Amino acid sequence: MGRRALRLAVSLAGLAAITMTARAIAANSTTVGFAYLLLVLVLATTWGFFEAAVISIAATLTLNFFFLPPVGTFTITDPQNIVALLGFLATSLLASRLSTKAKQRALDAIERQHDIERLYTFSRSILLIASLESFSAQLVRKLQEIFQFGAAVLYERRTGEFHRAGPSDIEGLDDQLREAAAHGTSFSDPQSHRIVTAIHLGSEPIASLAIQGTRMPDSVLQGIANLMAIGLERARAQDLSHQVEAARQSEQLRTTLIDAMAHEFKTPLTSIKAATTALLDNPDQPAETRRELLKIADEEAEHLRNLIDDTVEMAQLDTAHIKVRPEPSKMSELVRQVVDSMQTEIDNRPIEITADEHLRTSAVDRRLIRLALKQLVDNALKYSFPNTPLLIRVFDGDSTVTVEITNRGLGIPAEEQGRIFERFYRSPAVQNKIPGSGLGLTISQSIARAHQGELFVSSRPGETTFQLTLPAQVRGGGS
Questions:
Q1: Which one of 113, 230, 327, 338 counts the least CB within 10 Å of its CB?
Q2: CATH topology (fold) of 132-216
C-alpha cells in the first residue's frame, strides 16, 4: 500500500512539473494534452493501469482548470471543449488500458520463456544424473534447485519412499501424496502456495509431487510432471538393466566356474581312478608297487582338495569382500609352492626362479596369494610361445616385496593393457583361440588390493611382465 501511495505521489509530481512548464512557456491546450497523454502512457507501461487511470482523471481536471477558458475554474463554456475533455479522458484511459495489457503480455511472454528454459534445463539435468546416490532423491533436488521452490516432496508409489528437497519442509501432506499417487488426483492450497499433483506414466499414476513456492501455471506443472515421469521410468529402466547385467554376469561366472572345475578336476580324478583300478584289478602286487600307487592317489587327492579350495575361493572373491588372514610368509617359498603344484600345467616348460638372498618376511594370506600367483603363472603359460622359459623374480623394494612374472609371447596391445583386469574381458585376438574365462587377472588384482598392494602389467611385442607388489607388512582385515 505504501508503494502505491509513493507511485501516485511521483505521478502527481510529474503532472505538476508538466503543468508548470507548460504555463511558463504559454503552451496551448493541444500541446499540453499530448504531454499529459504521454505521461499517462509512460505510467501505464511502467506501473500499471491504476496509477495511469488516476493521473488520467487528474490530467483532465488540470487541463480544464489551467488551460481551457475560463481559466482558473472548472466551468466549461464552449461545448467543443467539453467534447475535447471527454475525448482526452477516454483516450488516456483506453491508451493506459491497452498499454497495461501489452506490458502484461510482454511479462507473461518473458515468464513463459523462463519456464521453458527451466523445463529444458531440468530435462537436461535428468540425463546427467549420476548413479552415486538415489536417482529419485537427486531428481527432486534438481527440480527444487532449478525452479527455486521453497520445498519439494516426491512420493514413489512403487517403493513407498518420500524424497524431500528445499530449505523448508512440507508437513502434513503425506496422506495426500499417497492418495494422489494411488488415484491420480491433485490438490492445491492457494493460501500457502502448495500444490500436490499426480505423476502419470501413460494413464497409470506412478508417483506424486508436492511443491511449495511461487504460483505455477498448469501447463508448466504438467510439463514438470511429465519430465518427472520420464526420469522415474529412466531410473527404473537402469535398475532393470543393472539387474539383468548382474544376473548375466552371475550366470557367466557360474558357467565359467563349472567349466573350470570340470577341466581342472579331470587330471587328478583320472590319476586317482587309474591308481585305484590298478590296485583293485591286481591286489597281489608287490608292496612297493602298491605303496607307489597309493602315494599317487594320495597326492592327487590332495591336488583335488586344493582345486576345490581354490574354486570355492574364486566364487567368494566374486562377492567383492575379501577377508585377509595374514601370516608371516616368505614370498619366494610361496612362489615355489605354486610352481610345484602346477607341474601338470607346466609340462616340462623351463621355469627360472630368482630371489633376493635376504628377502623380508611379508604378512600375507597364504592361500589368497598362492591363488593370485597361480592365476598369473597360468596366464603366462597360456599366452607365451611353446618351449620358451617363464622368468619369475622375487625382490625387495623400499617397503615392498615384489614378484615379477615374465613370459615370451605376442604381447598385449597398448590399447588393451588398461582393460585386461576387467572382469570377463578377453582380447578379441585370442578369445576363440586360447581357453580362458577373463577372471584370472581380475581375481589376482582383487587379492593384491585386499593386501593393500597392486598388480601392474608392462608389455611389448615378444615380452609381457606382470608385477605383483605387496607391502612388507600388511594389517589384517577385509577389503
A1: 113
A2: Beta-Lactamase (3.30.450)
Contact 451, 371 (CB under 8 A): no
Q: How far apart are CA 289 and CA 278, in angstroms?
A: 10
Cα–Cα distance, 222 to 233 (Å, whole number) = 16
Task: Specify the CATH architecture of the domain 323-478.
Answer: 2-Layer Sandwich (3.30)
Mean pLDDT of the chain: 79
Indicate the CATH number for domain 243-317.
1.10.287.130
Model pTM above 0.85: no
For residue 418, count other CB atoms closer than 10 A to its CB: 10
| Burial state string for 233-251 with b = 16 or more CB within 10 A and e = fewer than 16 | eebeeeeeeeeeeeeeeee
CA distance 199 to 188: 15
Res 431 pLDDT > 60: no
Residue with cell 622359459: 389
CA distance 433 to 424: 16
478 falls in which pLDDT band (50, 70, 90)? very low
Are the C-beta atoms of residues 152 and 144 closer than 8 Å to each other? Answer: yes
Contact 252, 234 (CB under 8 A): no
DSSP per residue, 5-31? HHHHHHHHHHHHHHHHHHHHTT--HHH
Which grid cell is 427?
A: 582380447
* CA separation for the pair 224, 151 (Å, rounded): 15
Cα 7 to Cα 417: distance, rounded to the nearest angstrom: 74
pLDDT over threshold 80, residue 242: no
| Residue ranges of domains in the chain | 2-108, 132-216, 243-317, 323-478
DSSP code, position 470: E
Cβ neighbours for 258, distance < 8 A, ≥ 6 positions apart: none
DSSP 228-268: HHHHHHHHHHHHHHHHHHHHHHHHHHHHHHHHHHHHHHHHH
- Within 320-394, residue ranges assigned H as helices are 331-341, 343-346, 366-382
Calculate mean pLDDT across residues 40-55: 78
